[in-house]
Write a structure and sequence with these properties.
With 302 residues, the chain is an alpha+beta fold. The chain is built from five helices and 13 strands. It has two domains: 125 residues, Immunoglobulin-like, CATH 2.60.40; 140 residues, no CATH class. It is 39% helix and 24% strand.
Length: 302
């Protein structure tokens, strides 16, 4: 059983302390070493012998251990022999002061019915060990022996791989999340953009060949115009327009006006018969425009 009571309870006492040493109460305190370094733990051992019928209080963490700072304590069981009790406690302290010699003495308190008596231990000291042997003198910047050198001193560049990996990981996560949330919309947008780009290119090529027909009709220009149209339709509808004959195209597209236009164009190419107008070629453009519009709606609502 421990008989030690902590010093914080002393706040309950309203009377003054007596500062005397009794032969019946013997307090001793000592450090376990003769030197200490900045912030280094050091043990201070406090022991007290007193008649067993007395009640003794020892300092706790609320006590001011200056110039030392309290870290923790280790208590030992009370030992009683021949009506004399002995209490011991080890305080783990450290210091951040730089005084060459640092001392410490601690009190113990014997409580009575209406007051308490304070007994101090002997004073023990330790030597402070400096890590820096010689402190430099304070010199102003203007008086420092500085050497002026404006030459560039190359410094090796260190790539921050951990930060780079984190950034790449975040970008990948964002990219995956964006694709999961907006993947369909993105694909639809890209399809529409490619479709529009190809249609504009077709119109430009087709109009160029038609202008040649207007300036001077020839079976070669007529065939070139038909080839431009077939290639575009094959890419647009994914159907074998370039390899199909006029008769086969009539089976693919059930459109009387298209069939008539293709027949007139065939006669102008293979029969070398100049048509009365280029309306048949212009109908090919109108037909491709219709298929383009249908394809747009299919993608938008697909």
């Amino acid at each position: 059983m421990y008989k030690i009571l902590i010093i914080s309870s002393l706040l309950l006492f309203q009377t003054g302390f007596a500062f005397s040493q009794s032969d019946n109460v013997n307090v001793k305190g000592r450090f376990n070493t003769d030197s200490v370094r900045l912030g280094e733990p050091i043990e201070y051992i406090l022991s007290v012998k007193y008649p067993s019928d007395l009640q003794v209080l020892l300092p706790d963490s609320t006590y001011n251990f200056a110039p030392f700072e309290y870290q923790k304590k280790v208590l030992f069981a009370t030992r009683t022999k021949n009506n004399i009790s002995t209490d011991s406690i080890v305080y783990i302290l450290n210091t951040f002061e730089i005084d060459s010699i640092q001392t410490l003495t601690l009190p113990v308190y014997v409580t009575h019915n209406k007051d308490c008596t304070q007994y101090y231990s002997n004073t023990d000291s330790v030597l402070f060990t400096f890590l820096v042997k010689q402190m430099p003198d304070s010199v102003s910047a203007e008086q420092l022996p500085l050497k002026i050198n404006t030459d560039y001193n190359p410094v090796s560049w260190i790539f921050n791989y951990p930060l780079f990996s984190i950034i790449i990981g975040i970008l990948i996560v964002l990219a995956v999340a964006t694709w999961l949330l907006f993947g369909k919309r993105i694909k639809r947008y890209l399809k529409l953009k490619r479709l529009n780009k190809k249609h504009l290119a077709f119109l430009q090529d087709f109009d160029n060949t038609v202008e040649k027909l207007k300036s001077g009709f020839s079976p070669e220009h007529a065939e070139q115009t038909l080839v431009v149209w077939k290639r575009y339709m094959e890419d647009l509808l994914n159907a074998p327009y370039t390899k199909a004959t006029t008769r086969e195209l009539k089976d693919i597209e059930k459109n009387e006006n298209l069939n008539l236009s293709l027949s007139i164009i065939d006669r102008s190419i293979y029969g070398r018969i100049t048509p009365d107008s280029i309306d048949s070629f212009l109908f090919l453009k109108e037909f491709s425009q219709l298929k383009y519009t249908n394809k747009l709606e299919e993608i938008k609502h697909g």
